[in-house]
Amino acid sequence: MKQYSLLSLLKKTIVYMVKHPWLGFSLSLFVITFSAQAQIPLNPFVPRSSWPEAHSVYCQQNSPMMSLTEHDSIIMDSIAFPKGEKGSKPGGAMVSDFFGTTKTYCFAGCNGTVIYKVVCSPEKSVLISKKLADIGANKIVSIYGAGDKDNFGYFMSDYKLFIAKDSLDIDPYSPITIDTIIDLSQYKDGDNLRGIKMLYSGQLVITSTHGGVIVFDRSLRKVLYATNLHEIIDNNMAVDEANNVYILSTGSLNKFNWDGARLNLVWRVPIGGSGTTPTLIGTTRMPANAQLVAVVDRSRPMNLILVWKDSIPGDWKGIEGRPLRVAAVEPITFNTANPKEDVAPTENSLVVSGNSILLARWDGMQPADNSFKPGLEKWTWIPETRSLCRNWVNTTTYIPNSMECLSTATNYIYAMGETMLKNKKYFTLEAIDWMDGSSKFQKILGPHSKKYLNVFGGSIQIGQRGEIITMSREMIFIFHKFSNSH
């Protein structure tokens, strides 16, 4: 087991080029937004943190933490993976709760080659990793993982599922140990494991690419239930506080309910292809017309589709040519002139806050340097009229392949972008105003950013101190406010 200190791996780069003066935000707006976020029941089996699970709570890609604004002096700490541990699949991270009085915390994930955790404190950050070869696995086959309230993680490799823990529970800097490995080869049908989520009752739900759905007890020592959709699953799933599980396959969006013994199919709606992980809007405490599931299909152009999550309003007449459970369908164009010819795809998981939904244009794992087509758009569901309203379209900010995240405290969307400066292209940290789509700041990351900082579709998280966290195949990088300790 190797442990790498930040002193030997840390590379600091001051980022620069700030656009637009700071305009601040309304305190009353902050209170309203934070209250809406707080209404979502937190899963008692995941960490109490700023980003407790993949895609965050309800798969909404948001956090109530205050994060960076354009008046901050921002530094980027980059922690490189050692030679031989450079990744093939930059993934997302789960952020733990704070450890004791030292106020350290860690975030953990996988990069396709190793399981890693980064332990952060005001004094230093330390990368700790464990090669997959050490646990008898070749590679991580899914970018998704699940965090636990006891600060350990569940990961999937080949057709194995395992628990990664700290060697010493009281020491976050202790090496990673593998507590349990479960072999799922008996469920294998020429596919790979895909998604993973923790139910609000503490069981784990796992999906595979060929439609398998498996429920485990929390210790991973017992398979409680297994079924198969017989359709391809490309994305993760969403869960809610009533132990409902929402799975999008290439042919349908499915709602299952876990009753403690089995997954029961509640409804199934045909969908034209799997574009995004399902994202939940509204909680079970809200009226039925405010509870929906949002997904994107694979039509041409792609559509944003909302589905009634629970009961369908009794006077709902439906949409012509669609199943009755479909509440809204809107084509995603980013104001493209000819959307059917110049397809404007989206791939990243949706960002949701309240009734509003953000989509970003996707240019593939490798940024499409020759196309350089920007685009973000925000929609809002209006329960009173049962319709989607497009709020704004940003046609200037280019986010080629990064996930986005939202701080509901700053009301800023954060993502890794790309820009042109003096005929050269650089990766950037972008901040977009949630309310009107304007750029709040853009920080250009320097001449070597194109080589080292491509996130290849990876996630971006907000840390316990408001940091922005993401990773490339080469390294993990953390954007935070400059302080004298750095």
Write a short abstract of this structure.
This protein is mainly beta and 486 residues long. Helix content is 4%, strand content 39%. The chain has three helices and 35 strands.
Description:
By secondary structure, this protein is mostly beta strands. The protein is 4% helix and 39% strand. The chain has three helices and 35 strands. The protein has a five-stranded antiparallel beta sheet. Strand 15 and strand 16 form a beta hairpin. The longest helix has 12 residues. The N terminus is likely disordered.
Output the structural class. Answer: mainly beta
Number of helices: 3
> What is the CA-based Rg, rounded?
21 Å
Question: Helix amount, in percent?
Answer: under 10%
Categorize the overall geometry: globular
**Largest beta sheet: strand ordering:** 1-8-7-6-5
Query: What is the straight-line distance between the termini?
Result: 28 Å
The description of the largest β-sheet is: 5 strands, antiparallel
Features of the shown structure:
single chain, 486 residues, mainly beta, five-stranded antiparallel β-sheet, 3 helices, 35 strands, 4% helix, globular, disordered N terminus
What's the structural blueprint in terms of helices and strands?
Elements: E1 3-4, H1 6-9, E2 10-14, H2 27-38, E3 62-63, E4 74-80, E5 93-95, E6 105-110, E7 114-120, E8 125-131, E9 146-147, E10 153-157, E11 160-166, E12 176-183, E13 193-198, E14 204-208, E15 212-216, E16 223-228, E17 238-239, E18 244-248, E19 252-258, E20 263-270, E21 279-281, E22 292-296, E23 303-308, E24 326-331, E25 351-353, E26 356-360, E27 376-382, E28 387-394, E29 404-407, E30 412-421, E31 424-433, E32 439-444, H3 449-452, E33 461-462, E34 468-471, E35 475-481
Parallel strand pairs: 3-29
Antiparallel strand pairs: 1-8, 2-4, 4-35, 5-6, 6-7, 7-8, 9-10, 10-11, 11-12, 13-14, 14-15, 15-16, 17-18, 18-19, 19-20, 21-22, 22-23, 23-24, 25-26, 26-27, 27-28, 29-30, 30-31, 31-32, 33-34, 34-35
